[in-house]
Amino acid sequence: MPDAYFQTLLQRYQRGECTPAEQREVEQWYATLEHHVPTSTPLTVQEREALQSALWARIAQQTGLETPVIPLTAAPKPWYVRTPTRWAAAAALALGLGLAALQQLPNSWIEPAVPGVATAQMEWTIRTEPGRLTLPDGSTVVLAPHSRLRYPRRFVAARRQVFLSGEATFDVFHNSQQPFEVYTEQMLTTVLGTSFTVQAYAGQPNTRVQVLRGKVRVQPRKLAAATVAAVPAAVELLPNQQVVYSPAAHELHKDLVAQPALLTPPSTFSFDDQPVADVIATLEQAYGVEILYDKVALAHCTVSVVLQKDQLFSNLGLLCKTLGATYKSVDAHVQLYSQGCKS
User: Fold this and answer.
1) Domains by residue range for the chain, with CATH
2) Pick from 93, 95, 193, 292: most CB atoms within 10 A?
3) What CA–CA distance (Å, rounded) separates 147 from 153?
4) The whole model's pTM is what?
């Protein structure tokens, strides 16, 4: 089924805005998970995971319980992630049977709220292993160990705001009318719909933001201790770019990530006596990285080379060895230095 329709319906369901017909449709999907009933529109693995998250989010909304963080590492499954127990509890709660269904169930799986946090806020702390959770808007977060995330039970304000201490990777549901903002002690990251990682551990001198997909805007927070003149201007990041903020120096340093990911697989990574310009253009498109070079000096140069996937810098090193050239990562692009074809 269309992803957009599925996501929209699940969001309406967890907000309690579905029509009776739409609610029956979601419940029918639930039935396929619990009883393996075939349907005319079978769910994909991703849709099953999204439905699971939506059911738990609806439970949280109706009962005040918090959506469980799902460990990413393999471990014995507790009662609430086994079928049929988990889905029986989920169905009972999501369909409005209330807290009575939980009276004899253990509550050890509920992460206790941090004292002093408003009841409208939910907070998760990951202690020993990464964990995945779903936010009220359908966005997903993978929290690294020793990290903490605070967010509202419902995103009702003009902006979707969360507060992070530690490290987390966000996959944000697109909503241009309600920007998504991640606050850390020193920095503010704003997105519309993307996937990115924020690293801001307590006691760590610098804060780092890396973009996996989409586009984000990063800026230091205007804290009371900083003057307006001391705060650097915001920078925008694209995939495979990162920014590191040094509060001590009041500097934002934009650069490429250590291992740029392959964004657009090319038709081939094998070149036989091909123009250097074609090889460079292929690398630029594949990794979304601008490569600057002397087009005049290399205009008539050809190379024969077989490149590797997911190895931008290794590929650049191989190309430079073939040409007798060198390269350097500068800001968020690559500068290739060559005096011409290698004789």
Assistant:
1) 1-110 (no CATH), 111-257 (2.60.120.1440), 270-337 (3.55.50.30)
2) 93
3) 19
4) 0.62
